[in-house]
Amino acid sequence: MSEATIQLLENLNALACGLFLLTAFGIVAMRQARGCLMLFIAQSLLLAASAALLGLRYGSGHLYGVALVNLISKPIIVPWLLRKTSPAEVYTRREIDQALNIPVTLAIALALAVFAYFLGIPLANAVGPEFRGPNVPIGIAGLLLGAFTLTVRREALPLLIGILAMENGAFLAGISIARDLAMLIELAIATDGLIIVFIMGVLVRAVQQHVGTTAVGELASLRERAAEPTAPEVLP
Amino acid sequence: MCVALAPGQARAGLASTRASFGCIDEGSTLTQAMAGRIVFNLLQVLVVMGFAPLAAGVLARLKEIVQSKRGPSVFQPYRDLWKFFHKDEVVSEDSSWIFRFTPYIVFVTPIFVALLIPVLTSYPLFFAFMGDMLGGGFVLALGGFFATLAAVDTANPYGPIGASRTRMVGFLAEPVFMIVFFTVSFVAGSTIPYIVQQKWVTPLANFFAPSHVLLMLAFVMLILAEGGRIPVDNPTGHFELAMIDESKSLEYSGRGFALIKWGGQMKFFVLLCIFLNVLVMPWGLAREQTLLAVLLAIPLVLFKIFCFLLVLVVVESSLAKLRLFRIVEFLGAAFITSVAAMIAQVFSP
Prior knowledge:
By secondary structure, chain A is mainly alpha-helical. Chain A is 75% helix and 0% strand. Chain B is built from 11 helices and no strands. The longest helix of chain B has 39 residues, at 28-66. The two termini of chain B are 31 Å apart. The chains are: A mainly alpha, B mainly alpha. Chains A and B meet through helix 1 and helix 5 of A and helix 8 and helix 11 of B.
């Protein structure tokens, strides 16, 4: 492989990582639930692109497998599962409220991203020169931003997407560090992710049926009516 | 499709420009070269003046087509300007000199910036080293500053509303501009547009560097905000209370209005030139110092602008105008994008 091709591949990989970081910011700050889901799909596609580019760069067939698994499970099966399990009302919600207002959220997210760089670059440098790339710091940033999404969101579907975004971030860092992991592990992780989505989707449906809303941020106080000796509530 | 310029060639261009600044009496060839440069400079200004209304007309027409309307001809802005220039001008008795002075400033500032940036040529021209991108930004801001003053000057109730809103958008856009220019100077080691534009394509892989793509994204959002385009402001709206950019020129009529309108179109055109020629790639610009090459660059640059207008139409037709306080979030997103570009550049391992 010529020097120019390698540089092009590395730049394209860096570009995929940069856009990945941007989608992570978007998931934290997007107002619409559907927009959140779209950004997650875009993020997963970028993750798959990064895996494929790294596979091309290092000639690793395993990374192509990772790209393929990601391409099938996250952008296709996850939205399909969510649509099957959770009620449609979840998607049509706009103007989701947040624990913090959006400029403050974005500022904190920015600080987290810079922190991830300070954490990730010495880490990658300590391991070896071949791990020096944007994947490790941006993967850590994706992880942190996903966790941050969990803390600021007050709506069920974006919370779920926050968890999945954390997994995406860990994957993005992982594909540059462990280039030849057993395929079984990747498949296991992907299946795990799908089961999480399935369970959470069912949970969201149950919450929506019981409470009438998926704005879980408002569910702050316990209901004590169940303790009364009267007959159990009849579900609608 | 796009061949990288050898760095030596650009440097030779810089050197000869410096030479033409220094000594004039060094023989007829230098004088001739200088005359050529001046002609190219004039050509740049004429292109900006002449084609700015056309870009506005094409954009309006494309939008109408997307909305399944026929829309006015692409030459309608020229007819409008012609009409306004031939109408009488009404100036309020209570307005000061600022009101009468402002149209000329709004008209002249984009022309000044057109002298600083590469509109047609990829080698620096006569005034290229008079100011960098920051300088260009300040010159453009001067026009905006006087437009704001003039809007307040007439005491028309809608003028100050629009003026203060424009200031709001402006001061939110300012940090994004700053970060974009800082990142550019990190990448290229300079903020002179003629030097910056070569960096993105030498080698071609640089075009896909994350800092470059994220910068482009951030700058597109800035163009939408600064040009008063749809997610931020509706340029075709006629409801005074919802106006941001337009209400500043409500009190103008006749020649003053024509100058302000033409100036606004030129400012938009200049922003497009900065974006497409400096920040995206210098493809299509003239590389040889001959009149033919420079003339050939005109259709190529116009084609580039047309392609970008297509993107802009898609953006404008698929988004709704944001509520006023949502603009903070829009420009916050632009800020995040530009900072992500800076992080990717500065901390790149």
